[in-house]
Each structure stands twice: as C-alpha cells, then as structure tokens.
C-alpha cells in the first residue's frame, strides 16, 4: 500500500495508519504486474504440456466427471455444468466458462471434441451458441481417456479456490491431447498457437519415440504429415515443416479446397468450394467474395450460393467465357480462402512457459505417462497387497476354523474377540476384523476354494505389478499397448491434405489452355478468338457460312491463327504497333461479334489495324527478323524482338511518308526471300538480305516500284527460298490459283516486278497473295462476312500469268475481304 500524506493533524488519525507499509509506487507496479502476468500465463492462457488443457477446460471436464456426466450417461443442462464449475473450481464469469465449454464441443474447432453437445452449439459461420439454459452436454468418449485412472492417485491434487475440496493439478491424459486438439492462447508478453493433428499419426510418432529415444524431428515427421484441421483444407510447403516443428514456431500456408465443374446443365461453369482454412469464418468469406464482385474487382461471376450443411459447399456460377481457374486464383489471393497459420508451440512445463519442438512435446507426454502408470501401478499394488493380506488371514482362519470359532465364543465382546484372535493366531488388526466380519456361508467348501483361487489371482497381480515397477521397459511396453488400443478405437483418416511443394504464384498465362485459336478482327474494330474448327471445311466454289454477327456497315478484315499464349502484335495504318496476350482476347462463337479492340489497347480515333502478328516464343534466342511493308511499296527490317515489350499506348513501328500506310508485317529468317504483290497483278521476288536492318523509328527503303494508282496488296515470305513453294493469289471477285514460286525470278528490291495474274473485269483486282504449304487450309472471308474453308489442294496450280478459277461463289455486291491460311 502507499503511504498516505500526513498533515499537521496526523496525530488524530486512526491507529490503522500506523500499520501502513511505505513503498515506492514504481516497485509496487512492477511486482503487481509481474504477479498478474504470471497468473495469466499459468492459470488462464497457456496449456499444460502433459494434458494439453488450460485450467478452465480441465475444471470443466473434472466437474462433469464428478457430476457423472460421462459419455455413456444422459445429457445434462449446460447451465448445471457451468454452475458446478464456477461454484466449486473456477470463480470466474459464467459466460467465459460456457464459451470455453462450447469451444470443446464444436466439431469445426476441436479435431477430437471433448464435449458432446445437444442443441445449438454455434456454427462455422460465426453463429454463437444458444444460451446455456437451452443446451445440454456430456463428455465425449475421448475425454474419458483424459480422465482415466484419475481415482488411482495418478496425479497431484490441490485445494480449490476456497479450500473446501480438492481438484487435480493435471489430468492423467492417456492421449497426447495438446497435439490432437491444439490450442490458441494469448498471455501477457507471450502467446501460443498449436494446430490440431491426426490421432493415428501422433500415436505412431509417440510409439516411434518410445522405441527410439534419440529420434529427431525428421524421424517423427515420417509418421506425422503435418497439422490436421477439422475443417479440412490443403497445406502447402510441407518440406519446410521440419524446420517449423524443430524450432517450435513458423508459418504454413493453408488453402480451402475448390472443385471446378465445367459444362453444367445450364451451360455455365461452376466453382465449388468444398473446404475452408481452419478458424476462417465461412459467412465472412462469402461476404468478402460478394464485395469483390460488387466492387467489380472480381469480374465474371454470375451467382454465389451457400449450399453448406455440416460440410462446406459454396457454389460460384460463372459467366460464359470466363476462366474458372483465374477466378479461383483471384479468390485465393484476395480472401481468407488462403491464409497463413502461424505455429507457436508454447506450453507450460512444470509451470514454466517454454517454446517446444515436436520431439520435446512428445517426450514430455511420454514422461507424464510414465509417472501416471507408475503411480497407478503403485496404487493397484497397495490395493492388491491389502487384499492379499486379508485373504491370507481368511485362509489361515479357515484352516483352523474350529479353534477360531471357540476363541470367538469364549470372548466377552467383539473387541476382546479381536484381541484374542490377534494374540492366539498372530493375526493383524485388519485380518482379525475381516474374520469377525466373515459370514458363516464362507465355511462351505466351494467358498473356501474361492478364497484360495482369489488369493492366487491377487498374488499373480502383485508379482506382475512388482515386476512392472522394477522394469522401465515393461512400463514403456504397457504405455505403448495402451496407445495402440486408443489408436485402434479412435483413429481416423486425415481431413487435411498436405503437399510438399510451396504455393506457387500462378500467372494468368499458366492458367490458359495451350491451344490454337482463330483471331477474327473486323473493320469496325471488333475482335474475338474462336475455335478454328468452327469453320467447316467445304468444297471450292461453295457459298460459305456467316462468321461474325457484324453491323451492316462492318466487314471482317483479318483472321489470324495464333497460340493461346502468344503475344499478339497489332500493326496499324498509322505505323504504330500495340500488344496484348492472345488469351486476353474474348472468346466467342463463330456468329458472335466480339468486343471492341479499344477495350484492350489504346488505339486512337481514325487509326485502323492493318496487320495482326503472333510473336514467336523464342524470338530473343533466334536470328529471326521483323519486316514491315507499306502500301506505297516501302519495306523495313528490324530486330525480331524490337516489340517484345510494348506499352499499352503503343510504339512507333515505322515512320511513314505522307499519304502512306502500313500494310503488313512478317517475321523472317536469314535465308528467307520476300515476294510483294500489287493490286494490278504485279509481283517482285528478292532476297531479304537486300534490306538492311534499321532502328525502330526509321522509315525504310523501297521494296517495289509501283505504277500510277497501284498499291501493294500482298507481302509473303518464301521460306529458305524454296523453289517448290506455291504462290496463291486471290482476286476481288473470288477467283484464285496457285503458281510455282520458281516462275518468279529473284530480282533486286525496288523493281516493278513481273505479272502474277491475268486480271479482268470478271476477276477484279488482286486482293491477296500468299506463300502456301500443301497441308494448309484456306479461309476466305467476304465483305458481307461470308466464310469458306477449303483445302489448298482444291485450288489448282496454274501458270503465273493465268486468271485462275472460282474459289468462292459470292453473292451480288459482295467481294473478298481477306484470306487466311490454317
């Protein structure tokens, strides 16, 4: 206490002030806080390493034990149990005690619940339990294993808070409960967070430690896969568990399990969440996902339903064309469906908080079991010896029964009879009293034999117990046998899966199926990607099918086959280049329009895409070059990886002359040749080495000399200058043919070239020219979006100067818009 301030009237103060002890306030605060903190650590927040229980849980179980609310008994009102706990052993609030009892009954909280509840005991959604007056409870079977042999002087007892009765300082605990159910506690200056584990695995590890006292953490982890949470889930990074368990602290990554169901009855993909991480509130998880959808951070979700019963089942319905794995990835990253469990294995060892490794935890449990079994055996031995002593007296009395009866008959009273028996036959006080209490029926022959048989049995038990107490090996073997019996009775399968690999950051590209797609682009700027098989192969001269649901004034201009993971370059007539991933292009069916390209790249008003090109994956490692051609016949060559990284706003690909436009782009190899074709049917073939490499913003050199009102319409690459290559040309009115490239002599760049097709009013102007392979297929798209797909073999090989045959039958007023090869 603090010394009160005295004034001049201090002489008039009561005598009690003369007994006040002066003390510095800082010293008093230090002592009081230390006393408080130690009380919290040892009597509230931290479990004992031996039985894995905090004082409140131990007192709850002991109170139920004394009430007789065992696993085979009837349920009792929770209020009755709580009343006994706070009235006899735990003088704290009833709400705190009830909440602690509820926690031990929740199957999503305790891996092996210690209390069986009847009524509303809360849910994984965060719902609280009903009031204690409504619910009922009793001990679970496994809780009985913690209290087994409590009456056999197996543990120390201490006075309760008011010294009116005794309570156990620790429970006998025949199972390693600290690891089975784990614990969470926050003390003053320290905390504990021990995850639950699988009983079968923990028992196997304990038995291994009994056989191999020098076992390491790595040895024990051959039996224990890792934590086993009651809510399931998946643990990643198990290869790091050896470090966590050896140090007694560390973090592990836990994820809920998801299942992707494709092509459901409604035609929508679904994501099913079938488990959640430990201690995650399921309702809050749903709210978080819904918030992400509402804030438009998570796009592509059509509906979210909670179909959970006792097992978790959250259904997320997706919109068409949305990648389910990308949605799952985002949910893992931005919600508690994936979190970190920070293990901190702190427990009381002989009343002192210690950071424990897995080995130390099991060593302490085995040591506790040795003490319990030893004290139990000593108790049973004392009891057996006492019984043997009585039986020996009874046997001796029966051997001299006539004399014993005479001695009793001649005695004045019971006390004198006892004394006479003790003096005459050398019986002990207990033996003499047992003889006096013996019924006359024990004189029968069979009853006499029962005493002799019982004496033999008791002597066998005494010999066994004495041998057990003398041999530590026998005691450990007994502990092992009891553990195996518990494992066989309560063991179950793991609920949590464990993967050795750590959680890998999965990029959007990793989630994309490696496949070919046809990228379709319209003059109006709409783009989509679709399965190339959407275009049915037809015979030459067919009408074709509708591809894109375009506006009346819109026409399809490009169809490029690409890999789903390719970087796609978009070259525009303004000489700029833009870039995006193929999988970022929205997927659609053949007859859908797609989405505006402006949603993906920052193309300016009046700028039109003239070429779409897929970037080779190995462009940096190869000697591939990129070549560009303009409508006015200018050609430019630059490094193949010039556009490996293109910002969203685009880059300048070529500096154009006035009134010129960028026509096309191709990647070329060192021995490739170039062939350019003009609208008026001219073609020129030259070596690509004739064009020197230039910087990104250079303007290029002349590739083809054009006549008045002529322009370049075709830019193709002759692979390796192969003379057997075939050159396909298609005209405006649907006529086409192939010619051998050998008919086109190699010239120097900059010339006017030679005739490649006999153009007439019937054929119309040249619209497209391509080098083709025999295994390729041709897809032709008209201005009015008619599409035909035919094999190259259906197009005849004819002379260079011929007009060709009809490739596609066009409706009146329609013209060929573009040609693409598969």
Description:
The chain is α+β, with helices and mostly antiparallel strands and 822 residues long. The protein folds into 4 domains: 53-172, Alpha-Beta Complex (Topoisomerase II, domain 5); 257-336, Gyrase A, domain 2 (2-Layer Sandwich), CATH 3.30.1360.40; 366-490, Topoisomerase, domain 3; 512-821, DNA gyrase/topoisomerase IV, subunit A, C-terminal (Neuraminidase), CATH 2.120.10.90. It is 29% helix and 24% strand. It has 17 helices and 42 strands. Strands 30, 31, 33, 36 and 37 form a 5-stranded mixed β-sheet that branches. Strands 14-9-8-17 form a 4-stranded mixed β-sheet. Mean pLDDT is 86; it is low at 543-553.
Give the class from helix and strand content and strand pairing.
alpha+beta
Q: What's the story with the biggest beta sheet?
A: 5 strands, mixed
Number of helices: 17
Q: So, CATH architecture of the largest domain?
A: 6 Propeller
Q: What is the CATH class of the largest domain? A: Mainly Beta
Our count of domains comes out at 4
Low-confidence region ranges: 543-553
**Which of globular, elongated, flat, extended, rod-shaped describes the shape?**
elongated
Helical fraction equals 25-40%
Number of strands: 42
Strand content: 15-25%
Q: What is the CATH homology-level superfamily of the largest domain?
A: DNA gyrase/topoisomerase IV, subunit A, C-terminal
Produce the secondary structure layout:
Elements: H1 25-45, H2 55-67, E1 76-77, H3 78-89, H4 94-105, E2 115-118, E3 136-139, H5 141-147, E4 157-159, E5 166-168, H6 177-181, E6 183-186, E7 191-194, H7 199-211, H8 217-220, E8 234-236, H9 241-247, E9 249-255, E10 258-261, E11 270-273, H10 282-294, E12 301-306, E13 314-318, H11 324-334, E14 338-344, E15 346-349, E16 352-355, H12 358-399, H13 401-410, H14 414-425, H15 429-437, H16 445-470, H17 472-490, E17 497-499, E18 516-522, E19 526-530, E20 545-546, E21 556-563, E22 567-572, E23 576-581, E24 595-596, E25 609-615, E26 625-630, E27 634-639, E28 651-652, E29 662-668, E30 673-678, E31 682-687, E32 701-702, E33 712-718, E34 726-731, E35 735-740, E36 746-747, E37 754-755, E38 766-772, E39 777-782, E40 786-791, E41 805-806, E42 816-821
């Amino acid at each position: 206490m603090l010394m009160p301030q005295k004034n001049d009237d201090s002489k008039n103060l009561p005598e009690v002030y003369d007994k006040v002890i002066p003390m510095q306030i800082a010293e008093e605060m230090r002592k009081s806080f230390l006393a408080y903190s130690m009380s919290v650590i040892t009597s509230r927040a931290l479990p004992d390493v031996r039985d894995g229980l905090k004082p409140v849980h131990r007192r709850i179980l002991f109170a139920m034990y004394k009430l007789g609310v065992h696993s085979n008994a009837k349920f009792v009102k929770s209020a009755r149990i709580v009343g006994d706990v706070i009235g006899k052993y735990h003088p704290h609030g009833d709400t705190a005690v009830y909440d602690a009892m509820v926690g031990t009954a929740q199957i999503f909280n305790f891996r092996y619940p210690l209390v069986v509840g009847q009524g509303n005991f809360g849910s994984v959604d965060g719902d609280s339990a009903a009031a204690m007056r409504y619910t009922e409870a009793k001990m679970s079977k496994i809780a009985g294993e913690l209290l087994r042999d409590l009456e056999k002087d197996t543990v120390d007892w201490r006075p309760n808070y008011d010294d009116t009765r005794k309570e156990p300082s620790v429970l006998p605990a025949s199972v390693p409960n600290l690891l089975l159910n784990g614990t969470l506690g926050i003390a003053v200056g320290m905390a504990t967070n021990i995850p639950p584990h699988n009983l079968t695995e923990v028992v196997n590890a304990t038995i291994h430690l009994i056989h191999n006292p020098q076992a390491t953490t790595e040895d024990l982890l051959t039996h224990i896969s890792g934590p086993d949470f009651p809510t399931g889930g998946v643990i990643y990074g198990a290869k790091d568990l050896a470090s966590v368990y050896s140090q007694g602290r560390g973090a592990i990554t836990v994820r809920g399990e998801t299942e992707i169901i494709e092509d459901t009855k409604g035609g929508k993909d679904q994501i099913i969440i079938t488990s959640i991480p430990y201690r995650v509130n399921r309702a809050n998880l749903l709210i978080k996902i819904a918030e992400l959808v509402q804030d438009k951070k998570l796009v592509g979700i059509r509906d979210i339903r909670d179909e959970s019963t006792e097992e978790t089942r959250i259904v997320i319905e997706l919109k068409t064309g949305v990648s389910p794995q990308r949605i799952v990835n985002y949910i893992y990253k931005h919600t508690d469906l994936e979190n970190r469990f920070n293990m901190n294995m702190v427990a009381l060892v002989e009343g002192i908080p210690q950071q424990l490794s897995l080995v130390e935890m099991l060593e302490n449990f085995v040591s506790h079991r040795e003490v319990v079994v030893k004290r139990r055996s000593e108790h049973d031995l004392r009891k057996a010896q006492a019984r043997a002593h009585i039986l020996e007296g009874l046997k001796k009395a029966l051997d001299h029964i006539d004399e014993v009866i005479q001695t009793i008959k001649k005695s004045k009273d019971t006390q004198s009879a006892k004394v006479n028996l003790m003096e005459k036959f050398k019986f002990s006080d207990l033996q003499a009293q047992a003889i006096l209490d013996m019924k006359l029926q024990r004189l029968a022959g069979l009853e006499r034999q029962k005493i002799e048989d019982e004496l033999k049995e008791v002597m066998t038990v005494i010999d066994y117990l004495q041998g057990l107490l003398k041999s530590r090996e026998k005691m450990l073997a007994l502990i092992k046998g009891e553990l195996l019996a518990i494992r066989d009775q309560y063991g179950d399968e793991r609920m949590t899966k464990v993967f050795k690999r750590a959680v890998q950051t999965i990029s959007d590209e990793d989630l994309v199926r490696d496949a070919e797609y046809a990228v379709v682009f319209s003059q109006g700027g709409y783009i989509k990607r679709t399965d190339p098989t959407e275009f049915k192969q037809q015979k030459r001269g067919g009408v074709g099918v509708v591809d894109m649901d375009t506006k009346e004034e819109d026409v399809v201009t490009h169809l490029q086959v690409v890999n789903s993971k390719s970087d796609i370059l978009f070259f525009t007539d303004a000489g700029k280049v833009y870039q995006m991933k193929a999988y970022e292009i929205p997927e659609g069916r053949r007859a859908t329009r797609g989405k505006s390209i402006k949603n993906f790249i920052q193309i300016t008003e009046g700028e039109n895409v003239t070429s779409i090109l897929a970037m080779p994956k190995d462009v940096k490692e190869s000697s591939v070059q990129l070549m560009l051609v303009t409508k006015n016949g200018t050609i430019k060559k630059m490094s193949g990886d010039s556009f490996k990284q293109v910002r969203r706003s685009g880059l300048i690909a070529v500096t154009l002359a006035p009134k010129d436009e960028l026509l096309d782009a191709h990647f070329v190899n060192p021995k490739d040749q170039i062939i350019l074709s003009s609208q008026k049917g001219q073609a020129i073939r030259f070596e690509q080495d004739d064009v020197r490499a230039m910087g990104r913003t250079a303007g290029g050199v002349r590739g083809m000399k054009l006549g008045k009102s002529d322009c370049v319409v075709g830019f193709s690459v002759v692979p390796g200058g192969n003379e057997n290559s075939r050159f396909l040309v298609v005209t405006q009115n649907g006529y086409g043919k192939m010619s051998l490239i050998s008919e086109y002599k190699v010239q120097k760049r900059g010339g006017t070239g030679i005739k490649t097709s006999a153009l007439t009013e019937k054929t119309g102007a040249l619209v497209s020219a391509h080098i083709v392979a025999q295994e390729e297929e041709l897809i032709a798209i008209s201005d009015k979006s008619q599409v035909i797909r035919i094999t190259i073999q259906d197009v005849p090989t004819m002379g260079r100067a011929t007009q060709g045959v009809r490739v596609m039958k066009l409706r009146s007023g329609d013209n060929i818009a573009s040609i693409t090869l598969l």
